[in-house]
Amino acid sequence: MLQIAIVNGPNLNLLGVREPHIYGNQSFDQYVTQLRERYPLVQLHCYQSNVEGELINYLHSCMGKMHGIALNAGAYTHTSIAIADAVSAIGIPVVEVHISNVLAREDYRKTSFISSKCVGSISGLGMEGYALAVQYFQTPKTPNP
Ligand code: DQA
């Protein structure tokens, strides 16, 4: 079975409560329940931490266990070389996910240290971005031309 980790960084434990005009009304747990029903052939492993080093430790722990990772590093996206290095180090394909459209917000959100280490990025499509990342991992790959 396909093993996919969804990793959420700081403040994403407050989804559904936090700035609902930006991040929506749904808690992450509610959303993941739906996601598991939609992708019965995928085993989803969810992890959230507000602590940079814990996120790095979790990414390391995915080695040899996960086929892919959907990573929303929250504000660490814009600051953390250490998380970017972890993404490079683990050798697992990572899709960067942002619920909001980071390019349409404050300038400091326009820089991502992790984008260039990821297979791709999804931003601005709401929670559905996580589903699209899972969909990507589930789709058989053809080599790029
Ligand atoms: C976010 C965007 C980040 O800029 C912000 O710090 C977050 C959430 C998003 O999902 O839109 O915490 O990653």
CATH names the topology as Rossmann fold
CATH superfamily: Dehydroquinase, class II
The parts where pLDDT drops under 50 for at least 5 residues are none
Average pLDDT score: 96
User: What does the main sheet amount to?
Assistant: 5 strands, parallel
CATH hierarchy, class? Alpha Beta
Instruction: Characterize the overall form.
Output: globular
Strand order in space, largest sheet: 2-1-3-4-5
Ligands bound, unique = 1,3,4-trihydroxy-5-OXO-cyclohexanecarboxylic acid
Number of strands: 5
The amount of helix comes to: 25-40%
Helix count equals 5
List keywords for this structure.
5 helices; Rossmann fold; binds 1,3,4-trihydroxy-5-OXO-cyclohexanecarboxylic acid; 145 residues; globular; alpha/beta
Describe this structure in words.
- It is a single chain.
- By secondary structure, this protein is α/β, with parallel strands linked by helices.
- The chain has a single domain, classed as Rossmann fold (3-Layer(aba) Sandwich), CATH 3.40.50.
- It has five helices and five strands; from the N terminus they run E-H-H-E-H-E-H-E-E-H.
- The protein has a five-stranded parallel sheet, with helices on both faces.
- The longest helix is centred in the N-terminal third of the chain and has 11 residues.
- The radius of gyration is 14 Å and the shape is globular.
Write the layout of secondary structure elements.
Layout: E1 2-8, H1 20-23, H2 28-38, E2 42-48, H3 52-61, E3 68-72, H4 81-90, E4 94-98, E5 120-123, H5 128-138
Parallel strand pairs: 1-2, 1-3, 3-4, 4-5
Helix pairs in contact: 3-4
